[in-house]
Amino acid sequence: MERKPPRRTRERILDLSLRLFNDLGEPNVTTSAIADEMNISPGNLYYHFRNKDDIVNALFEQFEREIDHLLTLPPGRPIEFEDAWLFLHLLFESIWRYRFVYRDLNDLLSRNRRLEMHFRSIVARKQQVAHQLCAALADSRRLHAEAHEIEPLATNMVVVATYWLSFEYVSNARQFNDPVFQNRAMARGAYQVLVLIAPYLSDEGRTLFTRLASEYLKD
Questions:
Q1: Contact between residue 73 and residue 131 where contact means Cβ atoms under 8 Å apart
Q2: What is the pLDDT along the chain (219 residues), one digit of tens a residue?
Q3: CATH, domain 9-48, list 1.10.1670.40, 1.10.10.60, 3.40.50.2020, 3.30.1120.10
Q4: Pairwise CA distance, residues 181 & 75, whole Å
Q5: What is the pTM of this model?
Q6: What spatial distance separates the first Cα and last Cα of the chain, rounded to whole Å?
Q7: Sequence-separated (6 or more) residues with CB below 8 Å from residue 217
């Protein structure tokens, strides 16, 4: 049986750092703690990353690559309500995998200029996609919203999606890293975003929304 090649030290540092940042919060994890957990010397860690911000930036680049393909609506066909639900569910899965960014967002942005600029770009793209999604549903008469209502609706969707994990952490800090809690938190997040557009949905859309919500939010 062919053996897999061992992972490089740099990849192991990133994987471990992501786990520690997610579990403990990025401000509470030092490079010394990462080196100790990996059983390597601080010098070995610094050979790959000059400081903790370098690790954070590398992890954020991974997150950007993962989320990049999500922030594009499917071309060549009408947008359905199911597309919005799937988009949000996949988005929240990516957010959860890199939840330390969202949980410690204000602290990270206040001291990392590069992260601030890149995250601002992601938020702008989220808002663009949310606007396109709502506009496409309105064009197909699945969403009954006027043009002047779509922009604030899209903004509110992005606000809830961006800060939902912070709300979940404040509400359920002791359960935050529990896998069962994780699945429910992601489903609740997608639901809370979509509930913003529910009042504007057509009768068919409301029926579908109710069915999807009951399926994803059941215990």
A1: no
A2: 444 444 688 999 999 999 999 999 999 999 999 999 999 999 999 999 999 999 999 999 999 999 988 888 767 677 778 888 888 888 999 999 999 999 878 889 999 999 999 999 999 999 999 998 899 888 888 889 888 999 999 999 999 999 998 898 888 878 887 877 887 888 888 889 989 998 998 888 788 888 877 776 665
A3: 1.10.10.60
A4: 34
A5: 0.86
A6: 42
A7: 184, 187, 188, 191
Kindly report the CATH number that applies to the domain delimited by 53-216.
Answer: 1.10.357.10
Q: Is 19 helix (H, G, I), strand (E, B) or coil?
A: helix
Residue position matching structure tokens 């206040």: 110
CA distance 51 to 116: 18
